[in-house]
Design brief:
Layout: E1 2-6, H1 17-32, E2 36-42, E3 55-59, H2 71-76, H3 79-97, E4 101-104, H4 112-119, E5 125-129, H5 139-145, H6 151-170, E6 182-184, H7 187-195, E7 204-205, E8 228-233, H8 242-254, E9 261-266, H9 271-283, E10 290-293, H10 301-306, E11 310-313, H11 323-330, E12 334-337, E13 354-355, H12 361-373, H13 375-392, H14 395-417
Parallel strand pairs: 1-2, 1-4, 2-3, 4-5, 5-6, 6-7, 8-9, 8-11, 9-10, 11-12, 12-13
Amino acid sequence: MRILFITAYFPPCQYGWGYMRICEQVADGLAAWGHDVAVLTSTYRDDQEVKSYPVYRHLTIEPDWLLPESPAKQFFFGRRQREQTAVSHLHQTIAQFQPDILFVWDAFGLSDVMLQEAENSAVPVAYYFANYLPEFPGGYVHYWSSANSHPLVKLAKLPISMLARAMLAREGKPIKLKYEHTISVSDYVRQRLLSQKLIGPDAIVAPNAVDLEMFSGEPRQPEPDAPLRCLVAGRVAPEKGIHTILHAFGHLHEKGKLQNISLTILGKGTEEYKEHLKQLVLGYHLEKFTNFADPVPIEAMPTVLAEHDLLLLPSEWDEPLSCSMLEAMAAGLMVIGTTRGGSGEALFHHKTGLTFKDGQPEALAEQLVAVMQDRRLLARLAEAGKAEVETRFNMDVSVSRIEDYLQELVVVETAVSQPT
């Protein structure tokens, strides 16, 4: 097959995070299996190109929050021209690469006009969802309709917002994409989108896959007197529930039960939320137990994981399927986490880890005490979690499912398009 990936970000790039990493791994896997692969992505690039297959960096992100210009300015100046430029780049890339299928990966920020053009082309289109994109009305529609602004800001923005929304309506937006053929990262994502009739009925699941060569380690077996080294890694944001960890640590510390344990908070977030976390640390007198660390490149994560015994996943939102959870399991760490969203498809209580109800620090504290009191429990669940990932979430399994789905789609679409 000749497969053209269309995605918002592609390495080497500091944006896109786990979603981008999985895209790269799948593209590499399909290329290694003999398929011709190319990527059409945004202009963001932080280093020299290293891929053997072509990567076309032509697209813009709309709205692009990384630019100095406000989204409002981006909307009123040059937006329609950028939309048509994106469509032109799509047609040029299709003409140059001659793909059998268009595989849209991370479409957040990509032009809906371009995606609609892709759906209307003669080339079949498949989407991959490790998010809830079909629920999203489109970047600028969401921006002008957003309820997240401060009331005074919303009031000041109202006249211009009404003008912008009227312009979008005249342009036929939001555009309703078909999402006829889709692959979801978890059954939770698939069922959620199917239940709203947002995706086609032939949707399948191909879970996040872990690079088992990069993320590999012996299941942890800490000695009874050894410190228990806990890690939370990823975006430092309220929906990630890191405050729940600090409340749990605080409750245990107040009861004199916080012993031989440490916590590393690794990641990037807003200064407001990080300051809130630091105030919790001070309020509970957790300074000697906690450490804030800056995010590291993906290549350094195996080393970080090797320095810890336990990953905490306190998410308070519906995780499509956590990359950090699966990578930690593969690296031999035990996981204590919530099962919101797709996480419960890999994390099973007392089978592959320990679970607790999101937003309940007392429940998390109970699980921490269980591990502090019985290190054999940690060793047993770390081993079971590692086996789970190696069996169900390895790259070969995911790439094979994706390959089969795309090949079948190409065969069917080719048969339909041929004259009888």
